[in-house]
Queue: 3 jobs
Job 1
Amino acid sequence: MSEVAEKVIGGDVRAVARLIRDIDDGMPGVRQVLKELYPSTGNAYILGITGAPGVGKSTLVDQIVNHLRKRDKTVGVLAVDPTSPFSGGAILGDRVRMQRHSLDEGVFIRSLATRGHFGGLTQSTRSAIDVLDAMGKDYIIVETVGVGQDEVDVVKSAHTTIITVIPGMGDDIQAIKAGILEIGDIFLINKADREGTDKTLSDLRLMINMDHKKYEEGNWKPPILKAQAVFDIGVKELLEEIDKHNRYLTEFSGERQVRRREDKVRQELGDMVKNRLIEEVLDKITGTGEFDKAVESIVEGKTDPYTACDNLVLPAIGVPTG
Amino acid sequence: MSEVAEKVIGGDVRAVARLIRDIDDGMPGVRQVLKELYPSTGNAYILGITGAPGVGKSTLVDQIVNHLRKRDKTVGVLAVDPTSPFSGGAILGDRVRMQRHSLDEGVFIRSLATRGHFGGLTQSTRSAIDVLDAMGKDYIIVETVGVGQDEVDVVKSAHTTIITVIPGMGDDIQAIKAGILEIGDIFLINKADREGTDKTLSDLRLMINMDHKKYEEGNWKPPILKAQAVFDIGVKELLEEIDKHNRYLTEFSGERQVRRREDKVRQELGDMVKNRLIEEVLDKITGTGEFDKAVESIVEGKTDPYTACDNLVLPAIGVPTG
């Protein structure tokens, strides 16, 4: 085993930080380390926190970390939300909010920017989760803004996904689209002292009940909670629901649990294959003089991009054009 | 030329609607039609409208359409925002807002869901823009929520991109991350009767001025406008800035304009090659018994996904494993 992998498993914060940065930068060397870490993963409980910008996700994460620390649980936080103050994405934001945890060795916080390489966000986040898992963190919290397929895919890796909304953000429950609704295990109405809370509550209840068939065979029915994260109101109750969902998952009948695990592995391996493919082949195609010539032809109006694409891709994978 | 392509160029609304649906569903047959349409594209002016959920993008789009119609311009609208009421994404939203344009033949509105196939959002939107362009629309408005790489890529196709924010959505200017800031040609503070407008204005100004170097050589400096789209306040001024930006683009010196066009073609062809590659090769890999066996091995703990991925991808593209 490499020194890096050993250090990560030993909980060396510097080694972990460097490895996550390398993952985020798409360094090819990380793949070997991740192979070595993999057998040490599978022990952390992964929480996904998602919601539109402005719903107070970072404050909520901060409070959850606090509660988990009181239970003596170690926590890793990954901010993959481009609007999160943790990730440095919010230009003039309050980046100091989490500083009360910055001297706590039981908490490790990192953000992922991950725009540099293909398939970046989902792949890097999954790898970073593996690293924090191998490092021995009891809980890993992944914060995402939950809009865009990448971000939805990210929270699919979570054991429990919490969808955060606030009352009165518009005419309707903003930022809850079909895809996001389906992945919600718990719904949380934050800033629940605001006008419109009851309407948001009943709207959410309606949406969940529309799906009632899903809950017939003893499936988990997402609870809807109210909170004011900034005053630590409702966070304890949220933790209790997370525990309940955790118990529900472990009480899955054996067959079902295997199927769930298989689905997850299938999805993750498929994504990884896709990203790898791009990484290995795309550079070869776009780096050739053929590609430059094709660009020129399109600019000069001699060909269209659809035909040019056929002529570049098909020979590279052994399919005859024409 | 195929009948479909002829009908689209002739402005047949049904043919256009069916073609866009086929594009959205990732039907392979559309590629031939798009090749035929391509020579008829390049005439429309493309507007990108982006901003976080709840900033009032749809109302703004509605008003812009109204102003353009008064100038006798035809308009196509593509909603690629999962939270937009146009796209049916907002569950209990106001979907009727745009109905005043629904009987106007000069306006064509479609939403793109595009989750079915790889690289979907960007690719489908670009193709749908080509279709509305070939159909003869003077303006094409693309509405996106602007979070996630896909959505950023989408508005890169626009001639003028308008970034919409509202005051007081949080501690800071939410949903404006570095990547989004860079693509903004015009900034619009909507709901500008709200408290905090002046602060948002000065924050935006600060951010834009931080980039001051960019504006030295006569480059476009994004103006910041205030509006209350719901009362049609500030929309006329927005249209004037769009005209100004349009003039700026056409007054580009020749060399510069060619470079800009080349960059765009290069980016779009690169994306298209990537998507095509995935479409052609990924199915072959994930459809094999080898893939199923790999999933099983991972579930049983006999291998890790990183190694399994190597073993699937590398032989498929002629690279020795090990």
Job 2
Amino acid sequence: MRRAIEYQRSPCPVASTLDLVGDKWSLLVVRDLIHGKSTYGELVDSPEGIPTNILADRLKRLEAAGLVVKSAYQERPVRFAYALSEKGIALGDVLQALVRWGKKNIPGTRTLTEIRPAAARGGSGNRPGRIRAKAARAR
Amino acid sequence: MRRAIEYQRSPCPVASTLDLVGDKWSLLVVRDLIHGKSTYGELVDSPEGIPTNILADRLKRLEAAGLVVKSAYQERPVRFAYALSEKGIALGDVLQALVRWGKKNIPGTRTLTEIRPAAARGGSGNRPGRIRAKAARAR
């Protein structure tokens, strides 16, 4: 029965998971949704300055994979909120492993919740990169 | 002092780790090295059929990041063996998280060690995809 399933590359769970989230951005979107962000505007406003076309594409792909659920929270103009499904929330385990590895092996890395406002660029309480993200959106 | 460190996107350990291995192939190379593969020929011969130019690029990047150590095991012609550094081996934790998530959330996925020869294509004892990988190399 299992042979009827078509895998993109192989039935290996690592390969199959990377087929869904194996890129530089998808797991950052999952990270932000886990941290309570829900709107497009909030998601685009992250330190990494995700390009808007990539954010739109990743949200679409995560939704198609059943990791993200999209729902309208406003009509005229319609606006959407994004939330993780149960499967999406379960990726928190992968994120935690990445956090542990990064903090141990890449000097100076620290989770966003560990970055105090005083350390942010400009010291205005903005998260680092917020300015860059805003500039990117203004283009 | 920490502000002197230049991060590719942000000091977030998830983002910084994905800057190194956030793609569809790098962690599969790490998976294979953890499973005891060491030569280019062994690495190219995986079920996913990694294109040779991508394998060469990923090995170079993993070596530059200090995750893989390359050493000559033969002269004339010189041939290299690849092994994980301590940092590279530590990515096993991330791989295990991906395995757990994949097995739970993508029906039918199973680790390569769980695939018995009888289940392989052609039933010849080859791993699935080996034929495809060979064909890719022959191009």
Job 3
Amino acid sequence: MLDKQLAVALTDALASADMERVATLTADVNIPDLADFIAEIVLPGEEVDVLLTQTIERRAEVFGYLPLSLQEAIAPMMTAGQLSELVTHMPSDERADLFNVLDEVRKQQLFQRLAWEEREDIRRLASYEDGSAGAIMSSDYVWANVGMTVGEALDVIRRTAPDKETIYQVYVLDHTHQLMGVVSLRELIVAAGNVLVDDLMTTDIVSAFVNEEQREVARLISRYDLLALPIVDAAGKLVGIVTYDDAMDVQEAETTDDIHRGANISKLEVNFSDAKPLDLYRSRVHWLVILVFANIFTGAGIAYFEETIAAHIALLFFMPLLVASAGNAGSQSATLMVRGMATGDVTARDWGKLISKEIFVATALGLTMALAVMAVGYFRAGPDIALVVSLTMIIVVMVGSLIGMGLPLLLNKLNFDPATASTPLITTIADVSGVLIYFGIATVMLGLG
Amino acid sequence: MLDKQLAVALTDALASADMERVATLTADVNIPDLADFIAEIVLPGEEVDVLLTQTIERRAEVFGYLPLSLQEAIAPMMTAGQLSELVTHMPSDERADLFNVLDEVRKQQLFQRLAWEEREDIRRLASYEDGSAGAIMSSDYVWANVGMTVGEALDVIRRTAPDKETIYQVYVLDHTHQLMGVVSLRELIVAAGNVLVDDLMTTDIVSAFVNEEQREVARLISRYDLLALPIVDAAGKLVGIVTYDDAMDVQEAETTDDIHRGANISKLEVNFSDAKPLDLYRSRVHWLVILVFANIFTGAGIAYFEETIAAHIALLFFMPLLVASAGNAGSQSATLMVRGMATGDVTARDWGKLISKEIFVATALGLTMALAVMAVGYFRAGPDIALVVSLTMIIVVMVGSLIGMGLPLLLNKLNFDPATASTPLITTIADVSGVLIYFGIATVMLGLG
């Protein structure tokens, strides 16, 4: 967030097209803050003006921080020369992302101006599937050869540092580019110059394949406290690295997805505030409509017990509560399970233990709620119905909890992602069960008519 | 995760008390994997045996990776000498955490064996509030003095590196320990040895105060792609750093909290699989019981319309659906809002725009669902009720969505955390509104009795 005073001064300078003043004002601004300022510019074209006031290194960094949709909009406003200079200075992973959104004409123009090596790099990085390690990895890593001394490795690092994403992890490769070890700059710095890199490096390497899921890449980086995770191809050759900051972005995006999924919202490709109404509609309509059709079963359940209801209309006062309680208890235990499975906290080994714990907890919850509803029921509908309602409460909370716990386990056993379908499915099953159990018990205990 | 074969060999060696073999087998194992292995050990005391096979540096690291509850259980099994050696080698932040869980006797024993400086450090770090930056920061940072040359700074780094959490960010301090600038090891490495650190350092520093919330610290680290965030006291003096890996742990824990909150589960201090039944009960019972009492209003709503319902019992078939639809639409838009506000994507400036977009989306959703339910309603209950149900659907989806969007905004305006109360409150309000709107429309359109 830009300092308010600075933002005003900057807007003024921009309005009077005083680009020298813009350059002075922005020289020390943090990259993400400057990117935010540019993203807020209303007049098309001024984004480019501001970018051009920056050194080419800063310009490339700021550009990389802009939302991809804005990069796409700004790129055509630059000359082919400006764009290729910018692209040459961007980190390889951001460059590949930009290429994926450029139109064919621009792409060809750019390709002609880039060196062969850079072209190949872009083609390769742009070809990996969305959501895979390959799609976020960078090929700007520092590597040393097996057999080098620490002094030689430090020379390589000093020489190549300006183009690299990080220089704090050095990858040791053999002549076929096979990843043999990893050594940190920290270890190199404190070691004597004539020591062999081979004697310092760790050979127990944590790495991932190019087609690994990004969520798993982020998990590995977080678990092993890595600065960067080396990405290898099927032959074990190093093809790129994913840095911790990209992993943090993945974690944040996954969190948003997880939280949305808990409210039955499908994946949104963009931010909520940037999302088009149509995309928002699509992301939400899916489960809402499924709910309508799932209701056919609940409706049928109610219809089946029509006589009981007509005879004891006070039963209705508690129907929304009992149905909601079953669904709530179910979604609580499903959420605990699914999140536990996602963080690796819950493993197959634990299931027996967890299920017995859940039965205990659900019984306690059911009893507590039964007591609460007994009091409400007694005053509103008399002792008979209060008894029916509280007995039902115990059973629906237990059934809901067990469905909530069991379904993710079942989905997992069947090799489905337990997170995808759980909550809405569980709520629907719990709804139907709730209605059937409630009026079933009422029919038996109160008698027909 | 340890290789299966290795795990078996290790268990065998441990069973036959062959500690030399344990030492050989574990020498190259990754720290987190070894910690996991130790955490799974069943026989008390064997944890210490395995730890003692490691070098003191690795031992301290592995120990720091163990869950705090296990650290607490293992500590008394070590001699006072073993424990103080271990504690001396732990990173300062983990050391402070351990101290917080030790009993008084152990604490005093340890304090006597530690150097004055270490004692003061522990006392200071252990005194910060849970959830604050101070509670996760480390005092093992590298600093240089204003006026040093690059060569001098590199010498300091080399000399102090072994005890530091990270050496990749160097903090430049004046003689009062005031934070004047930050320079990266990368910049130092590529610069000439006689350049002044002052000429290289960034003075536009991103930092946080000791009492800042951890969530905000993680956000800053992620936004500015920092390796470590400097933490300063009210006077601007550097007191510690929070590293990116701690920020990733915070992010993960916050995600779990957010997701649990979405399912109305209160904060759990430990993992789901480690949680005691009583804690699980406590974390879940809260909202379930509130639900029971909120139901008094829904029940009263139904009671008010008893006559209408008795005359048109088919209306009941759709009650669970309409109530659920209002609640679902509401929790969808609340989730989008709350998450957008948490990630900083939605700001006060956007509200007008967002509300008009939401009205549009909600209308479209309501119309779609009305069409779906019209079909179901026609076949199950005839044209009159189908009309009532589909009209109700449009209105409840809109009302639900607007409550879901408006309530977080309102809570935010009133300076409450919008995430805390939203979902259950919204579901409850949507439930009551759903019932009232439904039977209200039915009474008007179908006539009384």
